[in-house]
Design brief:
Layout: H1 2-13, H2 16-43
Helix pairs in contact: 1-2
């Protein structure tokens, strides 16, 4: 959620770095979520 907020604020403010940082946080969160799902699936 925080990544989406950063990205939106970056877009509104015209701050490309903040926008990219927000996007990176979103991608990292999705990867972490996916890793957790895989772990849960393997546990069975």
């Amino acid at each position: 959620m925080a990544g989406a907020v950063k990205e939106t604020i970056g877009k509104l403010a015209g701050d490309a770095k903040l926008q990219v940082d927000g996007r990176a946080e979103q991608v990292a969160g999705r990867a972490q979520n996916l890793a957790g799902s895989v772990k849960d699936t393997l546990k069975g």
